[in-house]
Amino acid sequence: MKESFSITSEPPLAKIDAVLAGKIPLYAAFEPDAGRFLEAEGFPGDTLLAYGPIEARKWKVKLTGFKGKVTVEWWRTGDGELVEISDKVPAGDAKAFGDALSAHMRVLGLAQLDGSKTEFALKSVEPFAISTAG
Hints:
Blueprint: H1 13-20, H2 33-40, E1 47-51, E2 55-61, E3 70-77, E4 80-86, H3 94-107, H4 117-124, E5 127-131
């Protein structure tokens, strides 16, 4: 089980373009919730390291023997491919879910990634700097 936190925000593309052009700071593209967090944390300063390109797809699917739908993400970089299968379950159910999912994947002949998808991406692509100062 890995504990994680996220704020999902989809800023308008015009705001992303303005960040990339150096017209507005990064936090301004993600108002209100994620923007307030980024601004309060002083993140990321004047420069953001971006990694890419990463091609990604995401599906909700029904797996045999599992309640509801699980999320399947497929990522491809220049150096490799990754598939992540996950679901959001109550903390008390996480270990049982993870064990059952691991067993299901082994039956299918799939190997578990040693590390996270973020580590996979960081090892697979080169960073480039983007100014975030407005």
